[in-house]
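Hi Y.,

Following your request, here is the sequence exactly as I used it, all 138 residues.
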Amino acid sequence: MSPANGIEICPVDSGKHLGTSGIHQPLFGHETTLVTIAPGTVEDLFVHHFQTDQLLVVQGSVVLVVLQNRQYQYILMSECKPTIVKIPPGIPHGAINMSSQPCIVINSVLRHGPADERDYRPLHRPFPYDLDVVKAML
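Below is the corresponding structure, written out as tokens. Let me know if you'd prefer a different format.
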């Protein structure tokens, strides 16, 4: 399934190698946070009005849930296949960690205006997530 309209999924290009170490392209942003998603987490949706999230899993795995056109899209993110997922303003999204290990995500935020308190209030899910789809992805 292709990404939801406006979502970008970019494989991480290691570029240069120094011995056994790779040098990865940096994520540019106004603010960078390290987020730990606990095992068994099923987040509600959030929608940001004035920011783009740029997400990269550095440990573990998580399924990103995106809501558009009254449908959920499920995107597997994992340390085994590093990708950056960019979520622009106005797209409801959440995360599901069905594993027994925590998942650590870097979020390099691009600000498009002042933070809005509504950005961090969970939204009511209009219908349940399909956890069978999520489990099948892992």
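The chain is about 5% helix and 45% strand.

Thanks again,
Q.
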